[in-house]
Design brief:
single chain, 209 residues, mainly alpha, 8 helices
C-alpha cells in the first residue's frame, strides 16, 4: 500500500475548517515522506516539520475543547498574546509547518502532472527545485539556500522515489502516480485552507531564517 494513502487527510467540511485532532493525526505521518528523498540534507525539513507538529500538539492538548479547529488556536493565541502574535506558540509553528506541507504538495503535484527534465526524465531535480522555490526559498537566507541547492543534486531517481512511496514494493509508475493524485485531493484542500486562514487572519510573516 502507498505510504501516502495509508494516512489520507479527511474531507473538509463546507466552511473549510480544519479539525485540529484529525489534522495532527494525519500530519504526524508525513515526516517519513522525507526519508523517501534519500539525502540526509532533506532531514532538515523533516526535523522542522516534526518540531512544529510537536509544538502544535502540545498547545492542543492543554485544552482540546477550546482548540477544536486550527482557527480556534490562532484566534485564542491572538487573544492571549496580543503583543507578540502571530510570532508566538502554535500560530508560529503552524505558519512554518504549512510551508513544509506546501513543499510536499508542489513536489507531488509536479510529478503527477508529468513535469520532468526531458534530458534526464528519471531525475526529480526539476520537481524538487520547483517545490523548494515556490514553498520555502523566500523564507531562507543565503546559507540555508546554499544547503538546499546541494540537496537538489542529491535527489533520488524518480523510479527509486516512487518505489519508496510504495513502501518498497515494485509498482507501475502510473499506478503510483494515480495514488499520488488521490492523496493530493484532500491534502491540497487542507493546505490551501490553512493558507487562506493565515491570509484572512493577517497572521502571515515573511522573515527569513
Amino acid at each position: 500500500m502507498s505510504l501516502l494513502l495509508d494516512n489520507q487527510f479527511k474531507v473538509l467540511p463546507s466552511d473549510n475548517s480544519v479539525d485540529t485532532k484529525l489534522f495532527l493525526e494525519a500530519v504526524s505521518h508525513l515526516p517519513s515522506f522525507f526519508d523517501c528523498l534519500g539525502s540526509k540534507v532533506f532531514s532538515i525539513i523533516k526535523s522542522d516539520i516534526n518540531g512544529n507538529i510537536t509544538k502544535i500538539k502540545a498547545v492542543y492538548l492543554k485544552d482540546p475543547e477550546r482548540y477544536v479547529t486550527l482557527k480556534h488556536i490562532l484566534e485564542a493565541e491572538r487573544e492571549d498574546n496580543a503583543a507578540e502574535w502571530p510570532k508566538v506558540g502554535a500560530t508560529l509553528a503552524l505558519m512554518w509547518l504549512k510551508r513544509g506541507l506546501r513543499f510536499i504538495q508542489i513536489l507531488l503535484q509536479s510529478l503527477a502532472d508529468g513535469e520532468k527534465d526531458e534530458n534526464n526524465p528519471n531525475l526529480i531535480r526539476v520537481n524538487v527545485t520547483k517545490a523548494y522555490e515556490q514553498a520555502l526559498k523566500k523564507y531562507h537566507g543565503w546559507l540555508v539556500q546554499k544547503i538546499f541547492n546541494t540537496a537538489l543534486f542529491a535527489a533520488p531517481y524518480k523510479s527509486n522515489f516512487l518505489k519508496a512511496l510504495s513502501k518498497g514494493e515494485e509498482v507501475n509508475e502510473e499506478d503510483c502516480l494515480a495514488n499520488v493524485r488521490q492523496f493530493l485531493v484532500n491534502y491540497t484542500a487542507t493546505v490551501d485552507a490553512i493558507y487562506d486562514m493565515y491570509t484572512n487572519l493577517n497572521a502571515e510573516l515573511d522573515y527569513t531564517v
